[in-house]
Amino acid sequence: MIHSPRMPPGHPDRGIDCEHALEREVFALLERGRMPKAQEIADLKARAQAAGWTAQEIGSAIISLSERFHKARGT
Fold first, then answer.
1. Does residue 56 fall inside a structural domain?
2. How many CA atoms lie within 13 A of 29 on its CB side?
3. What are 22-31's pLDDT values in tens digits?
């Protein structure tokens, strides 16, 4: 489940909140050892938008989380 934003739009910590909301979902996609399919990303985006996140927040969170995931694994 993806939680809704806890802060109003424009709050400086909203991006971090979005990362926390998506972390489990993004890491689950990446842990399978293959590039997520476009439909999987589209489904994640749709569920995140339904929870109240913007497309820009979602995209930024996915990029940040992907970088963190790969850096932690040295890939």
1. yes
2. 19
3. 999 999 999 9
